[in-house]
Amino acid sequence: MTGIGSINLKVAVLNSDFYARHAINAYLAWDRRTRVIGMFANLDEFWAAREKMGEFELPDAIVLDANSVGGSELKRTSIRRLRESIEGLRIICLAPFVDLDMIYAAAEAGAAAYLLEQDTRIHIAWAICHACSLSPDEILISAGVEDARRKLSHPRLRRAKCLNLPRRYIGMSRRVRQAIELFAVEGMPQRLVADEMGIGVNAVRGYIKDAYSILESSHEDKCDYPPGMNQQEIAFMRITALDIRDC
What we know:
Helix content: 40-55%
Strand order of the largest sheet: 2-1-3-4-5-6-7
CATH architecture of the largest domain: 3-Layer(aba) Sandwich
């Protein structure tokens, strides 16, 4: 994958669930490679906004809730229409569960990815960047879709790329990981992290310091972080990272 500092993707989030939209927006906002240009509850909202968008405001990718566009035929039509309206647009379908008809429709319509929510979660920005790094004729799937795609006879699905697994950090205990995720991923102040974990603030600070050290020593690839990123932002990038060694 190209160096982090050279990626700048404009992303639209289209999801019928208010809390899901804002959770995705929060994770993408922390990641310097992605910038949310709009959040929409349905396609009608997006098309209304699309008419007012200037050329430099158009998204590079849309994270599309698989349940927000109706059945498989409507989904196929909607994805094609979206792709035709914006040159080079990548559609990342995010689904709560496996649906063979929906997966086939996404592949047939040219979606860049079909991912399950539980496979991506805090790794959504890395998943988007992974999908956008593939050629237009490729499709990215997450681990939970692997068995389903083998049942479907579509050339894009037969040669689908599988989303990389999250990076594993040797020596990071469950409590250290909990502290750094609450602090760097969820954005909670150290005092609230302490309340959540039932420990003192000094213990939280120690956990965060340990996490910083483990994350730093585990990333030998020396990713191209943009200037000005603080330790907390870099920790977010690392704790949410997928196992892409040439990052």
